[in-house]
Design brief:
The protein is α/β, with parallel strands linked by helices. The chain is built from five helices and five strands, in the order βαβαβαβαβα. The protein is 42% helix and 23% strand.
């Protein structure tokens, strides 16, 4: 079974985020094994600006990167629609990759050092979204992709 690891900066703050994640994890489990790793977020302060936050979060993300291709999510990444995303996931699976890792940064995004180590940088929307919101959105799109790949009726 294909394995997906999601590395996300910071814990979920709202119950609805957890509910959405739980819902899609339940739906996806017949297609793939998905795990989510939450790293510690670094707070911006007077002495720690946004670029420094990113630099300090990078090693917290990096220590969880495994052997599968890393895909960073960014509003500045390559834009894909649901059909393209399904083809992308299918391509990873057909290329013999037993796993992949999606990286969701914190409030300030993802440090350049992590982006350089990523196989790809994808955008799920041209709109900027909360890093909290993107978690269930990614899972919904993964479920949609697996539905497309397996010919299920979910994707309309």
């Amino acid at each position: 079974m294909f394995k997906i690891r999601i590395i996300a900066v910071g814990k979920n703050k709202e119950a609805w985020v957890n509910d959405g994640i739980a819902h899609y994890l339940k739906l996806i489990k017949k297609h793939a094994s998905v795990s989510i790793i939450y790293t510690r977020k670094i707070k911006k302060t007077k002495s720690i600006d946004a670029p420094e936050v990113l630099r300090r979060e990078a090693p917290l993300i990096e220590k969880h990167l495994g052997s599968g291709p890393a895909i960073s999510l960014s509003d500045r990444g390559t834009r894909v629609d649901s059909m393209q995303f399904a083809k992308y996931i299918s391509g990873l699976m057909n290329a013999g990759h037993g796993s992949c890792e999606f990286i969701i940064g914190g409030a300030y995004g993802i440090d350049k050092s992590i982006l350089k180590k990523s196989r790809d940088i994808l955008s799920l929307s041209p709109m900027t979204m909360s890093h909290q919101l993107i978690r269930p959105v990614l899972l919904e799109q993964l479920y949609r992709a697996f539905s497309i790949i397996s010919g299920e009726k979910y994707h309309k």
